[in-house]
Amino acid sequence: MLMTTAEIAPAAAGPRSDARTALLRGARIVAAAAVTVMVLLLDLISYAQLIFSGPLAESRAAGLSALLAAYVLGSLVFIAIRRTARVSLSFIGAAAIVQAAIAAAVAGQLEEAGVTDPETVGQLVLVACGVSTFAAGVVFVLLGTLRASLLAQLLPYPVLAGFLGGVGLLFLRSGVQIGGHVDDPLGALVRALDPATLDPGRIDAGALARIALTLAIGFCAFYLPRIIRHWGTYPTVILASLVVVHLGLAWTGTSIGAAQGAGWLIEPLPAGSLLRPPAIGSLLAFDPHLLLPIWPKIATLVIVAVIIQILYVVSVELEIRRELNIDRIFVASGATNLVGSLFGSSAMGFGRTSTLLLHNIGGGHWLGWWLTLAVMAALLVIGASPLALLPRPLAGGALIAIGIGLLFNLSLACRTLPGWEIAIALVVCAATAFFGATTGFLVGVVLAILIFGVEYGQIGAIRRSLSGAERRSSIIRGPDAAARLQEAGGRTRIYTLQGYLFFLNAQAVYRRAAAEAGPLRVLILDFRETVGLDSSALIAFRKIGQLAEQRGFDVLLVHLTPRALRQVTRNGLAGEGRIQILNTLDEALRAAETTLLAEAGGAGPGEVAVFARHMADRLGGASGPGDFAPYMTVRDLSAGAVLMRQGEAAEALYFLETGVVSIEMEVPGRANLRLRTTTAGTVIGEIALVQGGRRTATAIAETSCRVVGIDRAALARMERERPDLALFFQRFLILELAGKVSDTNRLLEAEMQ
Ligand SMILES: Nc1ncnc2c1ncn2[C@@H]1O[C@@H]2COP(=O)(O)O[C@H]2[C@H]1O
C-alpha cells in the first residue's frame, strides 16, 4: 500500500505536530474529494455529451440527471455490498461509447417510425440504455457469484491490448467531436485537406481552434501527471484549462450565451434541481421490437464492461499493492447497475481513476469517499447549472487524455510482444476504431480462437516415441527370448499422445508414422495423456489404418477414455482392418512382443526351457544334465493353480520350464495387482528363500506349467555333497536377481519418461 503523509509522520512528535498532521490529512482528504468530484463530473458531462449527441442533444439534461441519480444511489448500494469505502464507482467509458451507438440506433429507429417528440425520444432512449445497463448488471452479479476472477485469464493479451487501443481511438474521435463541437471530425479533416474543395472562406477557424485546444488539453492531462508525479498535477491542468478558456472569452468580449452558442461552452443546463422521475416509468411505452436490432450492441456492451472491469481491478491492485476481492466487486457493481438501469444510466463499475485519486491524494480515507458522494448528491438535488460554464475543449480533452492513455498502453505492449502478436493487436485496434466496438470485439474473439488453435497446434500431439526394445512389457522372459526381442524390438513403436488431438496437430501423428524409418510391425498409440479428440483426429487415425494395411503393420490403441472409445467405435475404426483397441499399454506391449517372437520363431506360451540346459547356457558348460537331477523335484501345475502365496513362509524356489506364471501383489479389499508375468526360463520364489523371509508376492499359473523346484533341505544337501554345484547354483541366483532388478529399473525409467 502507498504511504500517506500521515503514516510516515514521526510517531512521538508532540501535540502541536499532531494537530498539524491532522490538519494536513484533513486538507488532503478534502482535496481528494474535490479532485475526484471534478474528474467524475467531467466524465459525467462527457458521457452525457457522447450519448445524447446530434438529434438527442435536447435530452441531455435528462441524461445527465439519470447519470447523477444512478451514481448517487448506485454508490450507496455499492458501499452497502462492499462494506468498505476504499474503492469508488464510476461510469465505464468504453461502455459509454457502445451505449452512444445504442442510443443513436434507437433514435434512428424511432425517427423512421415517425416518433419525433424530443421528450418522448429522450425517454425511450433512456429506457434502451437502462435495458443494456440491466443486462450488464445481471451478468456482473452472475459472474461475481460464479467467481469472475477466473475470466481474467480468458482473453489473450494482444487481443485485449488491441481492443483497448481501438477504444482509445474512438475516445480520440469523440473527444475531438465534443471538444471541437464538430459532428464528423474525420470528414471535416478530409474536406479541409482536399485541394479541389478547399475554400479558405469555408474553414471554420473557431472549430479548428477548439480542436487544437482540445488536443492540447488532452495531451497535457495525459502527459503532465506522468512526468510530474504529484497528486496536484491533474487538477492543475484541469483548472488551468478552465481559466485559460474563460480568460480568452473575456479577452475577446464573448458573452457566456454567445460562447455556448458558438460551441466553446457546453449547452446551458436547466436551472433548478436535476431530480427527475426515473426512466423506468416509460417502460410500458417502450416497444420491445426496438431491442431486436440493438441486441448485438447490448451483448458487446456487456462483454466490454466485463473486460474493462477486470482490467481496471487488476491494474489498481498492482498500483495500490493490495488485493481487491474481484468477485465481490462484480457483485457490488452488478447491483449498482441494476439500480442504475431504473434511471436509464450508462453502465457503471469499479472506477480506476477515482479510486486511485482517493487513494493517492486522500490516503484512501473513508471521508474522502463520502464527501465525493455528498457533492454529487448536492448537484443532483440543488442543480448543476454552473456546470454549463464548463468549456467543451475541457470535456473533450478529458476523453482525449483517456484515449491517449489507452493508445500509449498499446504502444508499450507492442514493444514487448512478438511480431505476429503485434499484428493481431493492430488488426483488432483498427477493426474496433473503423467498424465499431462490436466488430472489433468479434474480430478479437475470432483471432483469439485462431491464436489458441495455432499456439496449441505447436504442442506436438506425440509427447514421446519409444521403440519396443526400449519399452518392454511386464513379461519376464528367458534370456533367449529377451535377446530376440532386443533385436526385433525396433519394429514396434510406441507413441505417447498428449493433450487435445484436433485438426491442427493430429495429422502430425499420421505423418510421423508414415515417415517411420525401418520396417514397422506394430504401432502402439497410447492415449493416457490425451484429453479428447475431434473428428479431424479420427480421420488422421483412419489414414494410419490405411497405411497399416498397405505396409502390413498392426495399430493398437490403448488407454482410450470412455468418450474417445465411443468416438472410435462409432466411426468404425476398430475391429476391422489392422486397428485394435486394448485396455492397457502392457497388454499392447505383450501382444506386440508375442507377434515379434512368433515371427522370429518360437518363444510362444509353449516354449520349453529345460533347467539343466539353461544352466549350461547361462554359466558355461561346467555342469551336465544329470548333475542337478538328484536335488530337484518336478511339479506340473494346471492353469489357475497357486504356486506360492504372498506372506507364506518360503520352503523352495522354482524354475519355470514350460508355461506362463503371473506374479501378483495382494492388496486387501482390492483385486490382485499384476506385477509381472514370467515365461519359460525364469526363476520364481528366490527372494524369500535367499532372505529367509516371507513370500513377497503370489505366483499363479496362467497356463498349465511345468516347474522344477529345489527346497531348503535339498539345497543344504547340495552344499554338503557338491559344493562346486552349490556355488554354481548361487552364481545363477545372483544373475537372476540382478536381472530382475535391472529389468525393474528399465520399466521404471520408461514409466517416468
Ligand atoms: N517385482 C517383481 N519382479 C519380478 N519377480 C517378482 C517381483 N516380485 C516378486 N517376484 C517373484 O515372485 C516371488 C514371490 O515369492 P518370493 O518373494 O520368494 O520371490 C518372488 C519373486 O520370484
UniProtKB/TrEMBL annotation:
According to its UniProt entry, this protein's organism is: Methylobacterium tardum
Q: Which InterPro entries match?
A: cNMP-bd_CS, cNMP-bd_dom, cNMP-bd_dom_sf, Membrane-Transporter-like, RmlC-like_jellyroll, SLC26A/SulP_dom, STAS_dom, STAS_dom_sf
UniProt key word Membrane: yes
Q: Which Pfam families match?
A: cNMP_binding (PF00027), STAS (PF01740), Sulfate_transp (PF00916)
The places in or outside the cell where this protein is found are: Membrane
Q: Which CDD domains match?
A: CAP_ED, STAS_SulP_like_sulfate_transporter
Keywords linked to the UniProt accession: Membrane, Transmembrane, Transmembrane helix
Q: What is this protein called?
A: Cyclic nucleotide-binding protein
